[in-house]
Amino acid sequence: MTLLATQGLSKHFAGLQAVRGVDLDLPRGEVRALIGPNGAGKTTLVGMICGRIAPSSGTVHFDGRDITALPAHRRINLGMAYTFQITSVFARLDAAENVALAARRRVRGEGVEAVVQEALARVGLADRAATLAGDLSYGHQRLLEIAMGLAQAPRLLILDEPTQGLAESEIAAFKSLIRDLAGGATILLIEHNMSVVMETANRVTVLNAGEVLAEGAPAEIRADKAVQAAYLGTG
Ligand SMILES: Nc1ncnc2c1ncn2[C@@H]1O[C@H](COP(=O)(O)OP(=O)(O)OP(=O)(O)O)[C@@H](O)[C@H]1O
């Protein structure tokens, strides 16, 4: 059953068509990777899905409801959580306080602490709860952002290049985190690292020059000649 659907979603910026006529159908419980070369329109597409960018045309439906005109904060309240390419943690608050800010969108009082502990444990940061976010490594800050997303018990978790800047060991931990979340959560993952895509996604959507070039299981995408030519550079 579809959780997120876009129809004909398009965005042009002063003459540049960044996204053109994207139809996306994301079933509940799926881990979907969104890939494509630099400038393909991935961030713009996700910006329209989460309400940070107004589409030029087209619609976005979430759980059957047309949310095209809904502001970003109302979409968060409906159960969308997203993390960005740039870390957005509060450096002067400790890890637990950062997650508590996110958790308070959903729970109050004593419930917050349990949600915080669980979210930190999920991403492997339980032992860093009292560390100032600004003192965490870059990779741990990215994981903290994901914990902040998880604390909201999102129905849709959108991750924009979560492994960018992570060390190999942190990428391995991220893959197992996504595998662990798979099934329980619906995830839209913008990702450049092909091993992450191949090992975590149920399906892959390939954007090229603002359009959907291909969509399929990871193995199908890897074997697709058009994708190889446009993106993997091995055509
Ligand atoms: N606010 C804006 N104003 C003008 N052009 C923009 C704006 N935002 C994005 N673009 C352009 O739209 C196109 C798509 O950009 P977008 O960031 O969505 O691509 P992307 O696939 O996310 O790229 P990357 O992998 O490099 O993050 C690019 O040509 C970009 O320069």
TrEMBL record:
The cellular component terms of Gene Ontology attached to this UniProt record, alphabetical and capped at eight, are: plasma membrane
SUPFAM superfamilies linked: P-loop containing nucleoside triphosphate hydrolases
Which key words are in the record?
A: ATP-binding, Nucleotide-binding, Transport
Organism's domain of life? Bacteria
**What InterPro entries does the record tag this protein with?**
AAA+_ATPase, ABC_AA/LPS_Transport, ABC_transporter-like_ATP-bd, BCA_ABC_TP_C, P-loop_NTPase
Q: Which residues form the ABC transporter domain?
A: 4-234
Question: Where does this protein come from, organism-wise?
Answer: Roseovarius spongiae
List the protein's name: ABC transporter ATP-binding protein
Which GO molecular function entries does the Swiss-Prot or TrEMBL record give? ATP binding; ATP hydrolysis activity
